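Consortium newsletter contribution from the modelling node. Members have asked for a concrete example of what our holo predictions look like. Here is one, prepared for the coenzyme A complex that several groups have been discussing at recent meetings.
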Amino acid sequence: MENRKAELIETLLPKDTNSYGNIFGGVIMSIMDKTAGVVCWRYSKKRVVTGCAQRISFHTPINVGEVIYSRATIIHVGRSSMEVEVEIEAENVMDGNKRRAASGLFTMVAMDENWKPTPVPAWQPVTEAEIEKWREVEKRRKG
Ligand SMILES: CC(C)(COP(=O)(O)OP(=O)(O)OC[C@H]1O[C@@H](n2cnc3c(N)ncnc32)[C@H](O)[C@@H]1OP(=O)(O)O)[C@@H](O)C(=O)NCCC(=O)NCCS
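And here is the predicted structure:
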């Protein structure tokens, strides 16, 4: 897999549910955060921390026993930060139904041995879709 992308696959247990029996949102956010961390770790070959999580949306509930695919893509690279788009897909393996369940954006920061932000390898978008996402991040960074 390209080093700008990573996928984690999970299935969750009753201990991960909210009071209504669906998977708790905080558990899903934790999986998203972990996937963002893995992709940035692999990309930068440095230790990374989460600087910011935004635009977290839960599109459909996830049920116990479903398989969760958490897919992360680095969409922007700054000096020490990497912006990661994470998409969660849930699959009911019994009937084959798959659906988009959650999404979010994570800013991960690479840290040196003194826990100071440190540069990461550069990356430039190539396709139209990549350029569009890159520009959106640039706009957000400028505030
Ligand atoms: C995130 C953190 C490293 C930023 O440190 P800082 O001293 O403010 O560093 P800088 O101002 O030099 O910013 C470093 C980079 O992070 C980005 N950044 C910092 N805070 C950010 C935020 N809230 N949102 C988005 N990006 C942020 C900066 O834009 C900069 O990007 P660039 O190098 O690509 O230009 C620091 O606040 C920290 O260690 N936070 C705790 C992290 C943590 O414990 N996370 C949870 C567990 S993993």
